[in-house]
Design goal:
With 214 residues, this protein is α/β, with parallel strands linked by helices. Helices cover 49% and strands 15% of the residues. Strand 5 and strand 6 form a beta hairpin. It binds adenosine-5'-diphosphate (2 copies) and zinc ion (ZN). One adenosine-5'-diphosphate binds next to helix 2 and helix 3.
Length: 214
């Protein structure tokens, strides 16, 4: 099953993608995570990406597309995968489709997790990420057992620099301008499905699984 997660920053794409990846035993591919790993390791890609990410802007398509296309052609993706945070622009979607067509493959579902803008700043300011294992929590909605400590691996949690309210507003504008047009793109391809992302994380998950099962 080849799935794309769509939705505003903070809609819950990553949370659901991780749960789906566990259930279907397929890789979770997050371009944001790939960039953050590159930044941490001081690679050239990381250095280039950081200048855009810090400003709440998208990293240019040419730095993203080949990376994802190479990744989905790897052996562990043969049964399927979940793309989280890619594509984010129409040219990215077109380049993915073209690369998949070459290997006789295509996306099965683009899952749009709908959350209104007014909920997003709250989602982002409460988001806490584990520095070590990448797990994501929310101070109010999905709290850890011990404040500031990852339930899974015991390491410290951080507030992402780009989750501060000033940058979030910018990222939301970028989302509406550059990413939202993908909803129409995948509707036309008959692969769009929608879920109400304001519900509890387990309810959202059940709704997605029910749709995918059909
Ligand atoms: P979010 O939690 O908002 O969905 P991500 O972790 O997916 O954020 O991405 C963080 C940042 O990484 C984005 O704001 C953007 O700068 C960059 N990024 C991630 N994926 C892409 C992509 N497909 N195209 C361009 N930039 C991207
Ligand atoms: P995205 O990948 O779309 O940027 P995340 O999955 O990182 O979003 O979720 C953003 C924040 O909202 C995180 O703090 C996460 O723990 C929290 N969150 C995710 N799903 C829900 C939900 N259904 N209800 C409340 N909070 C949620
Ligand atoms: Zn952890």
């Amino acid at each position: 099953m080849k799935i794309i997660m769509l939705g505003a920053p903070g809609a819950g794409k990553g949370t659901q993608a991780k749960m789906l990846a566990d259930k279907f035993e397929i890789p979770h591919i997050s371009t944001g995570d790939i960039f953050r790993a590159n930044i941490k390791n001081g690679t050239e890609l990381g250095q280039k990406a950081k200048t855009y990410m810090d400003q709440g802007l998208l990293v240019p398509d040419e730095l993203v597309c080949d990376l994802v296309v190479d990744r989905v052609k790897q052996d562990d993706c043969s049964k399927g995968y979940i793309l989280d945070g890619f594509p984010r622009t129409i040219p990215q979607a077109e380049s993915l489709d073209a690369a998949l067509a070459e290997i006789d493959s295509k996306i099965d579902f683009a899952v749009n997790v709908e959350v209104p803008d007014e909920n997003i700043v709250n989602r982002m300011s409460g988001r806490r990420a584990c520095v070590a294992c990448g797990a994501t929590y929310h101070t109010v909605h999905i709290p850890t057992k011990v404040e500031g400590i990852c339930d899974r691996c015991g390491k410290d949690l951080i507030l992402r620099e780009d989750d501060k309210p000033e940058t979030v507003t910018k990222r939301l504008n970028v989302y509406h301008e550059q990413t939202q047009p993908l909803i129409e793109y995948y509707t036309k391809k008959d692969s769009l499905v929608e879920v109400d992302g304001t519900k509890d994380m387990n309810e959202v998950f059940d709704a997605i699984v029910e749709i995918l099962g059909k």
